[in-house]
Amino acid sequence: MGSINDTPLALDFRSDTVTQPPEGMWEMMRAAELGDDGLDGDQTARRLEEETANLLGKDAAIYLPTATMANLLTVLATAPRGAQVITQINSHLYSAERAGSTLAGVLYTAIGGRQGELCLDSLADILLSVSGPSIALVCTENTHNDSGGIVLSLDYSRRLYELCAARGVPVHLDGARIFNASVALGCSAARIAQYADSVTVCLSKGLSAPGGALLVGSSPLVRQARLLRKTVGGTQRQTGILAAAGLYAIRHMSARLAEDHRRACMLAQGLRGLFPSAQCDLPDSNIVLLDLAGSKLASRNVVDALAQVGIQARARRESRTRFVTHRHITDASVAAVLARCIDWAREF
What we know:
Layout: H1 23-30, H2 43-56, E1 60-64, H3 67-78, E2 84-88, H4 92-95, H5 100-104, E3 107-111, H6 120-128, E4 135-141, H7 154-166, E5 171-175, H8 178-185, H9 189-193, E6 198-202, E7 213-217, H10 219-228, H11 240-252, H12 257-274, E8 287-291, H13 299-307, E9 314-316, E10 320-324, H14 331-345
Helix pairs in contact: 1-11, 2-11, 3-10, 12-14
């Protein structure tokens, strides 16, 4: 078998980050108006920031290389040294990004909860506690990556936001896939963002931009983040080439995410039929988790079996395999996965 780079994107279920720009996006990139974003600003980047802020109903936005940087800058701009940042125990911020707490000098405190939610009773207890470091920020994630792209309900988001607001604690939403959540809930991204003081948006997942993210929030927060951006190596120069891809992404790429969700459901339904005793919930969005806990098969077996016929997936923990649908995945892609699974499903 060839290298991963030889794998057709239509058979690459590892992540929606593998997506490549459509032709219209390339055209906008080639025609982008450029400036120096580290000096007096890049015109295209500023246009992207303004449009994204308006789209989410916030005052301002800052364009950044990655969503991880956007989350980190939120912490740096919001939480004084020695304070606590509260997040869900399986969140990306905690499981993959918490090394940033050493730079920020804060304590990331994780609390449990079902299906990507922070337990509101536990959160209330922490917010009311008079012992321990002060709480500077509460972070949520929607959609929730580790929980299989679960979408947090508007009602839950409202209750969490009101609970935090009553104690004067701001809420940050890691909305790397906020447009997937918007499509799944059938509402605007602004309706989701209204229950957060700041929001991270990633452009390089299902929206198919080759890179980039935004931090969206109040004007004071964004001004502070812009000052801190150089500290974390985030200053860019003629970044309008990538920002143009972001503009195309937010203008044209969100509505089609429903196709990814439909194919994820197709895949999950097929896997449930092949592995009836496995756990494979029907997804809210575009992430499918197949959990073979208790069987003699491990996630590595699944990934290796698919790789033999040129299909890429990812092992997540010992028993869990993750499949992510995106714009290059077709109905035929889903059928190819299920056809390969039939060959060894009897071993389960």
